[in-house]
Write a structure and sequence with these properties.
- Helix content is 22%, strand content 28%.
- The protein has 219 residues and is of the alpha+beta class.
- The protein has one domain: Umud Fragment, subunit A, CATH 2.10.109.10.
- The longest helix is centred in the first third of the chain and has 38 residues.
- The termini are far apart.
Amino acid sequence: MNHPIENEPNHAKRTARQELKHEAIEFVKMIVWFLILFGILKTVVIEGYEVQGDCMEPALADRERILVFKLPHNLSKLGPLSYIDAVKEGDIVIFDSVTEPDKRYVKRVVARGPKRRRRNTVEAKRRHGQASPGETVNVQFKNGTVYVNYKRLMEDYLPPGRQYCKETHEEELYPSQYYVLGDNRRVSKDSRSFGAIDDDHIIGKAVFRFWPLSRFGLL
């Protein structure tokens, strides 16, 4: 018994539909993988932010856009990689507000608490409210000048006239705590009002300005 031969135009149409379907599926897969990769990069590695306000002038101006590198700080939270020194004095960091939910700040780290001791060391238990020598770092803000452990901090990144303020503030920093200030001290809301910030609040370090193009470059 002879079998009917499939009409060539219909066969070609069916083949074209199958190829189109295959290409559509591959395109959707590519989009899904791109979104997954983008989500991982944004969550763990790097993220863009827009600066709002003039508290960090002249280093950062209102409406400028920056990239925040998050990977080193995220890695430093892992036990085997806790030795990574992700945040240093002088770094500009993004962190979650300690007083306002769903709000983030950009400030400069001017001091940090002492480094944590290695896990294979032991120490006597201290009494409540007391600290051993070297266990804290003292920070004082007096008339626009910062003193860390009673030594004046030389802040070369500040332009003349930005430092002077009448207020005073003092704080003791424990391990994994940071004292942050805005470069524009006269208008900045920072550790002078909400105190030191903990390591868990930090999102990452501002490393690059990509807008406006006239100020394009590393921070």
